[in-house]
Sequence to fold (346 residues):
Amino acid sequence: MAGPASDEDAPSAQSVIMGFMASRVTFVAAELGLADLLAAGAQSAATLAERTGTHAPSLHRLLRALAAIGFLDEIEPGCFALTALGTQLRTGVQGSVRNFALMFGGERAWRSWGDLLHSVRTGESAATRLYGMNGFEYMARNPEQAAIFNEAMAERTRGIGAAAVAAYDFSRFHTIVDVGGGNGALLAIILAAGPPTLRGIVYDLASGCDGARAHLEAAGVANRCEVMPGDLFHSVPAGADAYILKNVIHDWDDEHSVAILRCCRAAIPAKGTLLLVHRLLPERMEACAAHQQIAMMDMNMLVMPGGRERTEREFRELLEAAGFRWTATIPLHVAPAHTIIEAMPV
Fold:
């Protein structure tokens, strides 16, 4: 029988219990744009308070908390500079997670996670219960939040896309449909890395693919890619030789996931290829940072859209139910545990 926790163990347990506080501090820093204000160099708390229109003593306390987390360096009492970690909260820089912080620390996620117990008791999405609509309906009605969500996904996609083109040969395809492709961040990376003959289609709800044209133009591939709004539960553009879905299936339960995959099956040619870019849950959880990250994302899928992360075995079962056969699993060297699952029509 395990004995009582030692004093040495207690701070670790306490830091987990209080973890939400660091998340909220980070959100406020992102909301105020502190990293952008500090990009040119160190500033005093008083100056930052004036520039952000905040209560100077309280902002000073927030800045000290950010320094304790590691986002800032208090180079002398009351004067703060960005650290390398803090640079990731800047807008539009390589490796930025500012929109990620705004999304996970914002009101909708904050309230929904506060209702986690309801989701665990019922299996229902807390966000849907609180807001009376699913996430896609919410984004359609709240364009500012949709913009944050799309940019947050683009921030995460940059690293995943680079890993995908390093691990998989997309050049053998002629046309790739990015199903649920959002603002085109993934397809832009694939097309930019591929031959000029490679073409693409970004397919998503109108609210989802808002901004896709700008991403494609910025990547220099707009002349090789079409943006098509549509509902992936009703149909998917037919006739392409490859269909890719990044972090789409995890938004849904098994029934809806199979429905999406069956739409892809109806559209894909006999020799076409289906590619799922998703996290893989391990078959058995261990106490490590990588497993913790994917486990928390699985809980987020429960609380927010009502979906789930899955093991490779569970993905294979979905594919089989939709008329595909698994052909390969290609690990991507990017956290947390993303892979490309390749499948072909049966």
